[in-house]
Amino acid sequence: MTKKININTGNEKNVAIALLLWFFLGFGFGAHNYYLNRFGIGIAQLILFVIGLLTFLLGIGIIILIGLGIWWLVDLIYVFKYTDSSTVISLNSSSNINQLDELEKLHNLFEKGVITKEEFDNKKQKIIENY
């Protein structure tokens, strides 16, 4: 008997919003990074963008802006990485089904707000390690 469960952390980010922010406000401003809770990277991109604009006429700015453009393209990978926060577990044996039921109960407690995200993640990790 096979049973599958999709466990999520409750902090999913919308891929469409992240992509729109990446496309329209990502280069220079790094707006998608703020949405994905990557504040340090967003601030670094913004600072480099301002420095690149200020030093553009000296020739240094062109190099900075080209590097920032490459960084912007690589960030597209992270948009997809940080918007998918779910885990799918498939169990086959009867002893593992008890663990799956325990995971479902734990997830329900998390969704109802009975336990915090940290407690949920810690207990989920312990159950998965025992799997």
Strand order of the largest sheet: 1-2
What is the strand content? Answer: 5-15%
Q: Structural class, from secondary structure content? A: mainly alpha
How many extended strands? 2
The run of helices and strands is EHHHHEHH
User: What low-confidence regions span 5 or more consecutive residues with pLDDT below 50?
Assistant: none
* Percent helix: 55-70%
First-residue to last-residue Cα separation:
16 Å
Main beta-sheet annotation: 2 strands, antiparallel
Large-scale geometry: elongated
The number of distinct helices, counting runs of at least 4 residues, comes to: 6
Average pLDDT level:
83
Rg over CA atoms, rounded to whole Å, is: 21 Å
How many domain regions?
2
Descriptive account of the structure:
It is a single chain. The protein is mainly α and 131 residues long. It has two domains: 69 residues, no CATH class; 38 residues, no CATH class. It is 68% helix and 9% strand. It has six helices and two strands; from the N terminus they run βααααβαα. It is elongated. The mean pLDDT is 83.
